[in-house]
Fold each of these.
Amino acid sequence: MNVVQDNIDELNAVLKISIQPEDYTSAYEKVLKDYRKTASLPGFRVGKVPVGIIKKKYGPGILVDEIQKVLNESLDKHIKDNDLKILGQPLPIHSEEVGDWENPKDFEFKYELGLAPEIEVEITSKSKFTSYKIKVEDKMLNKEVERLQKQYGSLVDTDKSGKEDLIYGEFVQLDAEGKEMEEGIKNTTTVFVSTIEDKATQKKFIGLKPKEEVIVEPNKLTSNHEDLGKMLGITHEQIHGLISKFVFKVSMSKKVEPATLDEDFFKKLFPADDVKDEKSFREILKSRIEAQFENNSKDLFKRDVSRIMIDKINPKLPQDFLVKWTALSNNKSEEEAAVDFEFHADGLKWQLIMNKISEDNDIKVEFDETMDFTKKTLIENYAQYGYPTPDEEEMNQTAMRVLQNQEEASRVFEVIREGKIFDFIRESAKITEKEITFDDSKEMAEKG
């Protein structure tokens, strides 16, 4: 067996693998013998089928399998021994395959390789990046306090409905003449006036008193068929084609009486904190919101750093190879694969940059770190749904089961590695802190 690499350019190469009979004959004949031991063909006892018949019936398929194993081992060994950093997977050049499968002797196979570019990545005190801190403005804090007061408030009866009220009543389907249908749709439900999408229809629901009625077109209440189905007591599918008008008969309306800003209210929200007055309540609430914004800030930082470094380094990619590999791997046309490439190219470039940072600065992820990360995530999930945290042994077993899923294990590895890379960048580069509003952060995120 012989493997020769022909470098077309910095990003593309062709591997030529020459295989002789001694590379595959022994394994091929062993498999034939194993087949003969269990083969059951008409006219022969099990294990007594002549080798010639076994060879004629199963030989071609066995030969393909054994030669493919040799090829795979040769490819893996060459890539590992030569420390090749490849993108995608080797692609066979079938048109240049040499060999006689009917009378097997010497074979020659060729594979295209896409090579990762050689890049230099320097993160020093001269590297400049901006870290954003999203501030909690008074108007945002006030709005959140009001929302919480409503959430923990109580419903009280009203004489007539308002824009923020909840109306109880019954929807009844009408016929073309505006009369109630005897076998039509009827459903007792509630309507939040503020959620009605059509403004003219919403206005009809304001100022209603008990026993009053209003005629509506259902599709003007909401465009969400799932929600409308629940409102009318029918399925999502039944909504399609529904053109009837309905009468809504009001039984009563209620409004939310906001909770009072007192110690009982504070304790419901922050039972672990000793909150006595509105000032300390607002301070704690503000700190919680700021903590929630930290992830937004980190995402903006990651996005800006990756964009700056991609633009600066701009790693070259074997585009033609990657388009071809994507097309073959995903059963797409090369035109579709080319569109995919354009969409994912920057992500691949950033992956190459991160790999280089990890390699140059010995950034590694240990198994214990993946276990700790997984257990922490599990504990957060248990807490979110109000479940107690299991004991250490059960947590370890659960975390191990999670990490046995290769896809999940890879995801956890990448999350931890990325965190370490950005920690390194923050420690090594010059970071300018900039305070922005939440609206600013949304605008920046939308720009991408």
Amino acid sequence: MNSLLKTSEQWSPLFTQHIRELNVRARCIMQRENITALLIDSGQPITQFLDDFDYPFKVIHSLRR
């Protein structure tokens, strides 16, 4: 369990830095293109092959807190 916490602690500042950089890039592009809003699509559910049902949402246990 300790190794997971160390990994999480190591990734946390990198994730924050990554999100900050994405925000800077988005703002720059929005100013350049004179855009006032940005909509980010969350994607679509994955449908089972030859079926009408979507795969159920599952939590990745290694990422749960």
Amino acid sequence: MSSETSVDQRTRRNFLLSTATGALGCLAGCNSINGSSTGSATDSQESIPRAIGQRGWLQLGGGSENLAYRPEGSAPRAEVETVWTADTSQRVATNPAVARETVFVASYDGKLRALDEKDGDTKWSSALSSQRTYVRSSPAVVGDLVCAGSQDGGVRAYSTQDGEHKWTALPSQRFVGGITVSENRLYVGSIGEGAALYAIDSDDGSVQWQEPLEGGTSTAPAVTEETVFVGGIGSPLRALNTDTGKQRWQYTSADRASFEGAPAVDEALVYVTSTDGKLHAISRDTGDRSWMVDVPQQTGSSVAVADGSAFVLDYAGTIRAFATEDGSQQWSVETKSPFARDDPAVVRDTVYVGAFDGVVYGLNVEDGSVRWQYDTGSPAIWGSPVPVNGTVYVGDADGTVYALAEA
């Protein structure tokens, strides 16, 4: 556990930060965040307590559709403080998974760790490969297994209870993207020579099918009952049959840009960003474009989709909300620092993001006004905040994992 002194110092610094004046977000406009703002008067509600083990956030994007949205559940809406920190010693560039009162996190020291959701103590840790290697594949939980990939160790599965290694799939392949779980299958893409999208049986790690991906993919596919949606590095967005991997359709951007952010899919549309600064909404059934808008900065952001809005980040440090019906911009807010590989997540009426200056934000989904912001003191937030059980879990560039809850 990290020292109590460092937690107290951060708490005092963020109390001062919370009293500073700042700009509110505005409808269809763009404002910069210079301090913390209180949002509307309706924000004054009873504090949200931590609820250990109440719900899970099992994978990147929260579920197989990658919507990163929970209409139910609880997460901080008012000013936060550090409940605990845990040191992994190397950069955490992945998103935590939360299940069974445990926070699972992978870091650049090549290890997968299981942290106690209550206090951050390490329950167990396991090496994801035979040698120390960067891990950028966010863990995913399926049943009583937690799975993650590495750049030189394939995909590995461990017991959530004690970290016992259960199986390894595709040890010669390089995996840097997230794993998507649907039913008893893992869908995950590789990069480099022989890059492909794989469907892996979660029981024993056997490969059910594979489909070549030109350039490979560094993100997690979105999965429905019948279709897997996956983009890639220098390749189109493709819709594949979940049972066979056979292509249903493909969609190519006008400038042949890459689709490097994780796609999200709702009842009608697939939402995905492209590296030329576009947000696309595509029919999930036919692959026809419904609408396309400028972001307008370059982005590798995944899309969070919540109650009629699609939220996207860009490399310049702006978060934007677009109407899912027609792509019209609802609001935008500039932070003081760029977003790196960060993706937004939404619980009820708050959207959560982390920036490259080490600050984590909670924003009002209606207008982008700041509910709270917290300076971790880190050089950068590389993974994405996971809001669940009255807590936000997030890792930073220094290798520290934070549990943040309302003060």
Amino acid sequence: MPPFKNYKFPWRQGNYFANLVDSAEFFPRMLAAIDSAREYLLLEMYLVASGAVADRFINALLAAAE
């Protein structure tokens, strides 16, 4: 049986995911994804404190919206 067959949203060819363990892996990849997004972006983050990192994401999202 193919994985995820019984889920409401089945796995589709061409999709992929990567488990990015910590900020050293996650932040650069997410900022690059924001920069390369052309139609939409799904971003889920929890417990984000204000500061330099949050500012980088805010600036990247603002630039992507232009």
